[in-house]
Amino acid sequence: MIGSDAELDEILNAGENIQPIQKPPAADIYQSMIRAWVNEKAAPDLLPFQHDLVSQLRFIVETQQEGVHLRYSGQPTFNFLKFIYGLELERIKFVLRSYIRLRLGKIQHMTIYLLSDPELRMCMSDEELFFAERFQTLIQTYHKGSYLGNLSKQWQALDSDEMLMKPDLDTAVFCRVTQDVGDLQINEMETILMKKDQMYLLRYSKVRPLVENNTVDLL
User: Fold this and answer.
1) What are the residues whose beta carbons fall under 8 Å from the beta carbon of 47, sequence distance 6 or more?
2) What is the secondary structure of 51-82 as a DSSP string?
3) Which of 76, 150, 155, 199: CA 20 to 30 A from 53?
């Protein structure tokens, strides 16, 4: 605990001479991770896994945790700074966990669909793919043991078109343009001019490629 104004002044003054652990690029990576999380929440399907962002943020968390421990451990004067850095690290970890938890929920909901297509499988990380395959095995074992075994063979398949949980790619989504895109064909007869910082309500299937190349953000 900070016991007096003098102690608080000492901490703040001492902090002026300390090089910040989090460098500016880390803030950019964090903001990009938030964008990926929001896009994933708004997208009806599973977007490609953000390998680089997740790896970079995990590295930042690990190195900053170690840096805070080495720099401030055993120095009560810096407990306040240690607490502040700890809050920042928890904020980063919250976004990472939320992003991964959201994706796992989608994978559980659309497991068979995602595993049915090699291109869709590529959207998952190695860990997510392992999770999906194990989850599908468990589901198949459960269903066959509970009721599918009593049905004729033509009704036992879980990967038929009738059984697949597919995302609605034509659902309407709000989006914001982050870079000038130009004309976008939205149907056979109509195009719209996609300008930076403008917001639109469009079919997801039309903007999905733009989301993947970071020229459009979902809202």
Assistant:
1) 36, 39, 40, 123, 211, 212
2) HHHHHHHHHHHHHHHHHHHHHHTT-GGGHHHH
3) 199
Phi, psi of 197 (to 5 degrees): 75, 0
Indicate the pTM of the whole model.
Answer: 0.78
> Sheet of 216-218: strands edge to edge?
199-203, 172-177, 216-218
Tokens 């999770």 -> residue: 131
Domain spans, the chain? 25-166, 168-218
For residues 2 and 80, is the Cβ–Cβ distance under 8 A?
Answer: yes
User: Can you give the pLDDT at residue 78?
Assistant: 64
Contact 75, 7 (CB under 8 A): no
The hierarchical CATH code for the domain 25-166 is 1.20.58.1030
> What are 214's two structure tokens?
């970071």
Angle at 51 between CA 38 and CA 182, to 5 degrees: 55
Q: What is the pLDDT of residue 158?
A: 53
**CATH 3.40.5.60 is held by the domain 168-218:** yes
DSSP states of 15-45: HTTSPPSS-HHHHHHHHHHHHHHHHHHH-SS
Each residue of 18-50: pLDDT tens digit?
444 444 467 899 999 999 999 999 999 999 999
